[in-house]
Each structure stands twice: as structure tokens, then as C-alpha cells.
Amino acid sequence: MRNQGGIAFAATLAAVVLGAACSSSANHSAAGKVVAPPANASPAEPATTTTTQPTAIGLRTNVDEKAEFGPDKPLTPAQRQELAIQLVAARSTALRYPTVAAATRAGYILAGEFTPGAGAHYVSITKSASSYLGHTSAMDPAHPLALIYEGTAPTSRVVGLMYGAFTVAAPEGFTGPNDHWHRHTNLCITFDKGSIGIPFPPDSNVKKSACDALHGQFMRETLWMVHAWVVPGWDSPQGVFSHANIDLHCADGTDRTDKIGFCTGASA
Predict the structure, then answer these.
(1) Which of 61, 161, 164, 238 is at a distance of 20 to 30 A from 27, taking alpha carbons?
(2) Dist. CA 9–CA 134, nearest whole Å
(3) For residues 117 and 66, what is the distance between their CA atoms, to the nearest angstrom?
């Protein structure tokens, strides 16, 4: 039986996995056994995206995520200056872990698998637990919840970051109104030999009983999260805080995914 701390950490990782899982275009796969959803757990109807493969987790959109597609609102000079400082801090953090090998050496582990548009998310157990226990609306750009990579091979390069907040309402986040935070519903995560899996599509009608049958942790609703595409050369065409980076694709250059929404084929 897991203790409260273990459950809290599971919730943190669940949210992180979802950030990796739900976006609007393109990348890889990871390790771990994929379990097909039961017949009564059909996924919710996906929204139209830029991909021809709507099953990709990173390419679906829920209610929160649809709000991210609006045009950016203008900033005041003071806001621009403050945001620039925050983005420099975020970029510096990302570049401290330039490759998957650097992240794993620092204790980060892969959460979920690689998905088009959202890449591969690596989380730190220590930082995730700290984020949960903080329960604060304040966001530190130098302390993201996850590092995002273009693949899962040791040489795969960092492309962005993901931030999370365990607050009732969306946090203030970055300066200005353009970092639209989102959540996910009906998330099931599993833990096996140091790997974190998502056996069912998030934001679908999967039931807790189906997750329990896999000895997973079920979340009706996750924490708040936002992506930040701050790494030079990986700017998102849809904006620094866009839900997905449409330049991230599976290892074979396509957005083909399995039934869960992760890329098929090898990670690279």
C-alpha cells in the first residue's frame, strides 16, 4: 500500500506525463509495455489539429488547451522586460541539460513515451515532490517540472520545458497573459521497474476500475501545466507557450502513433 507521499508523487508524474502526452503536433516513443484500452474505454472525439493523425496524444486538444490557440495579447514595455528576464532564466536551465544523457545523469527519468508535438518529458523525483509540497501559485522559471527532448536516445537534444502548479485556479505563471495553462482528466499512470507508463489515452472516458486493474494511479483531474519552447533552434511556430511544437515528429518523420497516442517504431 502506497503512503500519502507516494500518491502525491504519482499525481505529479501523472501531470508531467500528460504534458508530454497532450499537445498539437509531433515526435518519438519510449520504453515500457503498452496496454491497449478496454473496449468500453473509447477515447473522446479529438479536436481538429494540424496533423493527419488525431490519435497522437500530443496532437489532441481538450477544453483548456483550445484556449491556447488564440493570438497573443500585446504586452506593456515593463511586461516585456520582465518576461525577457524570465525566459533567459528558463533557457539557461534547459541548456544545463543539453541531452537525455545529461538529464539521466542528474536523476531525471522518462515519463510516458515520445509523442508528436510534445516530445519526451523527463522529470526529477526530487523536484516533482518539492513542487507538490509547495502548493504555491508562484512560478520560478529556473525550476521547471520537466525537461522536454526531441527523442529518448542518450544523444537526443533538449527542446523545451514544462512547468506545473498544484493550485485550484491556473497560476499567474510567466509575466503577461499569453502563457495559457491547461489540465487533463481521467489519467491513469503505471509504475514498473523505474518506468512510468500511460496505458490509456488521457482525456478519454476510461474508468478508474480499468486503471485499478493495471495497479495504476488514477486522476480525475491533473495539476495545471504549461510548455515553454525556449531552446534556440526549437522555437515553436505557434509561440513560446504554445501547447505543442509542430516541428516535433516521430523518429520516422511522421506523426503516426499507436492507439494510446505515442509514436510507433524506435525512439531516436
Answers:
(1) 164
(2) 12
(3) 15
